[in-house]
User: Fold this.
Amino acid sequence: MNSIFSDRISDVPKSFIREILKVAVDEEVISFAGGLPNRDLFPVEALKMATEIVFEKTGPAALQYSNSEGSVELRKFISDRYNKKFSLDIPIENILITSGSQQGLDLLGKTFLNEGDDIIIEEPGYLGAIQAFSVYKSRFNPVKVHDDGMDIIALKNVFPGRSPKLIYTVPNFQNPSGISYSEENRNHVADVLKNKKIILIEDDPYGDLRYTGQPKSSFRQILPDKTIMLGSFSKTVVPGFRLGWIVAPNEIYEKLLIAKQASDLHTNQFAQCVMAEYLAMGNFDEHIALIKEVYNKQREAMVNSIKKHLPENISFTHPEGGMFLWITLPDNISSMKLFDIAIKNKVAFVPGNPFYIGKTETNTLRLNFSNVDEATIEVGIKRLGLAIKELVILG
Ligand SMILES: Cc1ncc(COP(=O)(O)O)c(C=O)c1O
Assistant:
């Protein structure tokens, strides 16, 4: 009998991380597996105040249906911030508020991808994007990323045979690897794409969380007609509000708006009102500075613990920002096998597999440093070091 479920959904893999997090629920397990911001830093009191102001000022209108584009105040805030940061001129008419940037990925898939359409993604790449685009049955063309960005030769090599419609990038403090594209690499990527009919998606949820190094250009500055930007308040304020946005040129915006209406009419109006009120209080930059101070210490604690407790024949990225770093084990060590031993040793991470297309064995793994305090990071990395030793001894 034919399946009652659509091919679209039957072929999409389950979220591997969600499955893994089920194993890591034991309270004694130190988890570097999730991608959670540190909840101790959520601006709870300020959001409580903002909520009260919304009820006083806006009353029932904050609970009514609203327009699909999203709150004018929020879009104005986002546009001003971009325009100041990158000397751009993005009008609010090009900003669409979404239910997290994850919805942005879904809307882009819905708007651009027919079954079998080619899309370029990073390898390793953000798992949530792989899942979102899989729903539209696109064909993935993974291009390796290195410490300084995309492999330009591999990127060029996609084109003789294929005509990808989209290229998906996370150029700042990438999830999962923590790497960032250098300025030079961004320019090389733009050179390869400039005469092609392709849209570049710049997904940048971590861009404000820079701890060292110089800020980099946005692709919107280098490839203005081809770039769509995705942003999010999940890492800078709270993920639970599910507030993100897309910046797109007019003709694309119109299509995205239809996709948005078909999906959910509009993003949660109450959350938008509270966020707009919170931002109007004027403490956003101070709040980001606090997050950066804490995460930077946690990042350093992780790097120092790795140097101290992991064998010398592993390599790791030293991200300039964001929430993740990436470990490469010696060739013959499977990160899946390591995961089983690590869980017994009460430490969890995400094995590299789900960040690649069609790889079942990898020697890489992702570690999150935003959600564990400095002292616990050292204990966890020590356990990981013991797990690696055990695996090497077991062969
Ligand atoms: C690269 C990237 N894009 C998008 C998202 C989704 O974020 P949001 O909470 O805005 O949906 C994440 C979340 O971890 C991410 O790492």
About this structure: The pocket of pyridoxal-5'-phosphate is lined by residues 35, 100-102, 126, 128, 170, 175, 203, 205, 232, 234, 239, 244 (CB under 6 Å). The first strand starts at residue 30 and ends at 31. The chain has a mean pLDDT of 95.
